[in-house]
C-alpha cells in the first residue's frame, strides 16, 4: 500500500463482521392453545406465521383454541382443517389472548344491567 492509503479489504471485512439483526418471523400475536371439554384454557401459544386466534366449539363437545391464519377463518376451510368435527361454531379475532372464551364476556352485560337498575333505584330514594 502506498503511504497514507487505506486498506479497503480490511474495511469490508470488519464491516461484514458487525452483528446483523435476527430475521423477523411471526406476528407477535399470542393466543390460547388447548383442546378440551372444560372451556378453561391457560396454555399460551406464540403465533409464528398466523395472524389471528380461533376459538372453535364442537356442538355439545370439545373446544379448540389456537393460532390460525385469518384467511382460514371460514366454514369451508375449517371443515377441512377439523374433519372429525361435523357441527361447530367459531370465532376468529386478532388481538392478544382474544380467544379465551371465559365467562367474564357473558358477565359484562349483567353488570351493566345491575348498574342501570341500581341508578334507577337510587333516583327513587
From TrEMBL:
The record gives the membrane topology as: Lipid-anchor; GPI-anchor
Sorted UniProt keywords: Disulfide bond, Glycoprotein, GPI-anchor, Lipoprotein, Membrane, Signal
The annotated region (Disordered) lies at 1-26
Tell me one Pfam family matched here. CD59
Q: Would the keyword Membrane be found if you checked this record's keyword annotation?
A: yes
Cite a GO CC annotation.
side of membrane
Disulfide bond in keyword set: yes
The residue ranges flagged as biased composition, category Polar residues, are 1-11
Q: Where in the cell is it found?
A: Membrane
Entry-linked InterPro entries: CD59 (IPR056949), Snake_toxin-like_sf (IPR045860)
- In Swiss-Prot or TrEMBL terms, this protein is called CD59 molecule (CD59 blood group) b
Amino acid at each position: 500500500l502506498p503511504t497514507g492509503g487505506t486498506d479497503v479489504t480490511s474495511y469490508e471485512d470488519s464491516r461484514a463482521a458487525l452483528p446483523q439483526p435476527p430475521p423477523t418471523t411471526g406476528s407477535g400475536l399470542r393466543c390460547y392453545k388447548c383442546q378440551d371439554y372444560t372451556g378453561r384454557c391457560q396454555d399460551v401459544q406464540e403465533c409464528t406465521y398466523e395472524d389471528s386466534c380461533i376459538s372453535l366449539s364442537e356442538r355439545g363437545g370439545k373446544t379448540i383454541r389456537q393460532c390460525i391464519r385469518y384467511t382460514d377463518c371460514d366454514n369451508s376451510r375449517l371443515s377441512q382443517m377439523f374433519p372429525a368435527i361435523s357441527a361447530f361454531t367459531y370465532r376468529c379475532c386478532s388481538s392478544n389472548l382474544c380467544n379465551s372464551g371465559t365467562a367474564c364476556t357473558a358477565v359484562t352485560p349483567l353488570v351493566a344491567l345491575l348498574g342501570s337498575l341500581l341508578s334507577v333505584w337510587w333516583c327513587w330514594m
